[in-house]
Amino acid sequence: MGDFFKFIVLVALVVVLVWLYFWPTFRARKVKHPALNSIFIVNLLLGWLFIPWVITLAWAFRHSPTADTLRPPVEGGSA
Prior knowledge:
Elements lengths: L1 H20 L1 H8 L5 H11 L3 H13 L4 H4 L9
Helix pairs in contact: 2-3, 2-4, 3-4
């Protein structure tokens, strides 16, 4: 029972750390950032260094979602 609990805790920790590592990429994808691919590449290759990770996070937060990306699509087309 103890080994299974340790395994579950380890898996949860890995999932949280991966999510935290790719947080800039997830944020850029959520707001449909125009430089999503560049943010992902920098995050993937240099994210393990603290300064590039912070720069990538700031870059992802620099773009805010526009009204078009927040509005759901209209059904039936325009009148």
